[in-house]
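Bench notes, afternoon.
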Amino acid sequence: MGTSAEPEEDSSSRRDEEWPEAEKAEKLARGAALKWASAVFYRPDKLEGLGHYRSREAQRNSSIQSRLKSTVQSHLEGVSSGLEQLRSAAGDMRSVRRDLCAVRWHLLGSAEGFQRLAPLRAVVMEHAQMAAVVRALPQLSSVHELLAQSLHLLHGQQLLEAHAGLMALERLRDDISSQLHCSSSLPNDQALGVVESFFGGLQELSDALAQQLWRVVGGSVRLVQEDPALFVSAVRIIEREESVDDALLLGSRAHRFPAPGRPKAWRQRFYQVMQETIAAAHFKAAHGDVKGPGLGRHLAALQSDILAELRVVKDLMVQCCPPHYDILSICTRMYHQGLSDHLQDILSRDLDKQEIFMLLSWVLHVYHSPEMMGHPDLLPEVDVSTLGPLVSPEVVEQMERKYVAKVKASVTEWMRRTLEVEFKEWFREEEPEMDHLGFFQSALPVIVMQMLDENIRVASLVTGSLQQKIYAMAMDELEAFLIRLREALGECGKEHQKDRARPKHYISYLLAVLNNNMALRLREALGECGKEHQKDRARPKHYISYLLAVLNNNMALSSSISTLHPGSASLAKPAEIPSSLKTALDRTQKKACRLLLEELLLDLQPLSVQLPSRKWLPGAQLVNSMCEVIDKYMRDFSHVRKPIFTFLLAESEHLVMNHYVRALMEKKMVCRSAEERSQLSTRLHQDACQLRELFHNLGLAESEQTLEVIFALQELIRLQDPALLSLEVLGFMTKYPDIRSLHRTPAGNRRCCGVLPSVQYASLQALQRTVSHFRGTSEVCEAPAPLGLRGDPTCEQHGDEHVSILLDLRGDVSKEVRNVVLEMMAQNPQSLPENYQPIFSNILVPAPELPFCLRKGKCA
């Protein structure tokens, strides 16, 4: 069995290799049978039907085998019939080959006979040519007559008849040329040359007709209104020529001899002539005609002419042209593209701001408006939005930047001139004008605001982005203007210090500056005015008045800045002023306020030299004089608006207090007796009461005054028992902690009256120079500048020196009591409470005398 199984396995393996599909089918069949048998005989009761299943499967197998046998038999019969047909076809092919070989040998033997027929072939060709000439003789004899007749018709504007003659002559010429070409594979060049020379006038007729057509097309807008028949004839001729071109190039005649002068492409030339006509009529203006006012007239002419011509095209020309010409869309595109190129050329030139504004406004608003391309007569057929922008967004942005630069240069120059005029007015012999409330002011803020507002409003007519750019530029220019105003105030102040009679109304003009208070280049002008005033205080004559006018103007303008913001009318609350502009406003106000307070200080300084002194003790003349000076200045300050007046009043009160206490600290006097101490105490009390009453009557509440420190000093002087000084000084230290310890004045403890930062310390610069001279040194210890008036220097001063001077002023304090007081101060250091307003830390005292071994006296 082993030997018999091996051949079977080999044969099955070979069969599997030859027929892998059969192996796969057999495996699938076995698997299916096994699955079916397991499902059928899974239950024991099914085993009884095993014989039935066996007989059924045997019948099915026999049926399948019979069908397979019949199928194989039919295939075998088909194969045998196919083989028989192949054998028959092979025999036929051999027979055909033999016949072809015989024909080939016969042709080779007849070649010499064909060569002897060549003269006959030439005679036949010549006969055919002569026959064609004979048939065309009647037409050829009338060629020159037809040419002359067609030219005559052309000169008589009978375009269709002239073109009919032209086409007849062209057909005759083309037929003769075609016959000459077809009669031989190589046509006679001489014969073709004769034909061309005979029909030489035909090309001239065609060119003359073309020129006449282009003249008609060039005046098409006028002709469709006056004589549309002529334009229609031209269009029909162009259509005929286009159909001939298409037939020659694409139709059944494309294989013929190429006709001379074809294709004419007159339809493309038709569009080209129309475009050239439009450009020559509207877009070839001379350079001088589009400058200044001429540009506005040119744009207005473009608007009216283009609209009128497009209406003619839509209403009349469309009816004269075939629909596939789409003449309205093509003309719209021609106008749009020509206008775009024309505007690009104009924008590339050096334009001023008015020209740029006109162009931008026209391009962005007029062109698409109902007055031009959006006219109801053109809609909906004309839609330029599909043609792209007339000027690219990049060019619009570039022109907006150029416009802003032009406006900025104009505004800068205009503000410079305005400031020069304002500066000269400060030195006039007249006070500045007043408003209906009696506040000093000038026309400067109104003029400047109107100018800036006008520029912003004009820019809003173009685009919102241009309006924003102009607004930002205006804010920058306002800030720069305020810087120049402050500098001008400084110059004016210097001139006034040199001659206090100049300007005559110095205070009035300072108040006017405060009233104006706006972000302009007023700061530089204020600086110049201050310098002039320092040189000669008699100049300007109305120095104070014009400073007040500057302040009033500054306030009026600062309140108007928010109205410049685009869309401010629709905002629920005023637009916020830029921080840099706020800074410029504050610095200008500070400059004007500082000049006013320095002016007050200069008038108080001669009076402060007299206190404390024994001449000052018995009478009230000195404080009366101080009150008169203060009252005079407050009357001047009343011409400034209330917020700034309140601030100036508070700063003046603090300045007087500081000035008064500083004078007490200069060691000019030492009480010799209890009576003098009583007189000094009484004088201090009376002066403080009088000054407090004065400022109270002027409108400054006692709770806002700082004169209380004079009352505290008076209590320290009035004390009769020196042994109680330590307790009194301790109470004084508790109330005024900056009188003791070395410290730096924190920035948060600087004075601020709610309207403007304090300028009191900068205003005391002149007194500091006096103190430095008293101390025997040229160095000046500057008090901390409030809120950015000057850097942030710190004045370091030992508080026990202030107390020592006060003890010296009493004149009855022994060394032991002094040591007790100073020791008590050292044991009870005080810290500055939050929001404390420093007083003594900003008051310098004379340097203590150094110990020396010799007595003071004259040299022996």
